[in-house]
Specification:
2 domains; alpha+beta; signal; three-stranded antiparallel beta sheet; Immunoglobulin-like
Length: about 140
């Protein structure tokens, strides 16, 4: 049993030492050479409070891109539907350039209510004001 324990100890020490080597290499990486990137959270301008959408209609979702940084970490956008405080799995549009400032979506077939909003993902998720979806 002691030889098995000794082997396990040696294996543990080997992996511990190997981890130390990789950690040292990572710490020595030239971070100064990495391109600086900024997080971009453009405010959604439409839909806004008081907007009413009807199922099946098409609408342009718009957001303000005037303060976009030069280097955006993630330029691919995604718009998802949010109900109350919960982001639903409903993707209204995906894989578009976040710098477009607008994208056309089709209003999904959901229960009519007044507490819907949109989430615009790219670098960061931001929410539109709540609006209504009706039949």
């Amino acid at each position: 049993m002691s030889s098995q324990s000794s082997v396990l100890t040696k294996v543990f020490l080997f992996f511990f030492a190997l981890f130390g080597v990789f950690a040292s290499l990572a710490a020595a990486a030239p971070f100064a050479e990495m391109e600086r990137r900024d997080v971009f959270v453009p405010p959604i301008t439409y839909p806004h409070t008081g907007t009413v959408w009807y199922k099946g209609q098409r609408h342009n979702v718009t957001w303000d891109t005037t303060n976009a940084p030069v280097n955006i970490t993630n330029k691919l956008g995604r718009i998802m539907l949010r109900k109350g405080d919960i982001t639903t799995p409903v993707i209204l549009e995906d894989n578009f350039d976040i710098l477009l400032g607008r994208i056309e979506v089709t209003v999904p077939w959901v229960l009519p209510d007044t507490d819907y909003s949109l989430v615009l993902f790219g670098d960061s998720g931001n929410f539109s004001p709540q609006f209504s979806i009706q039949e």
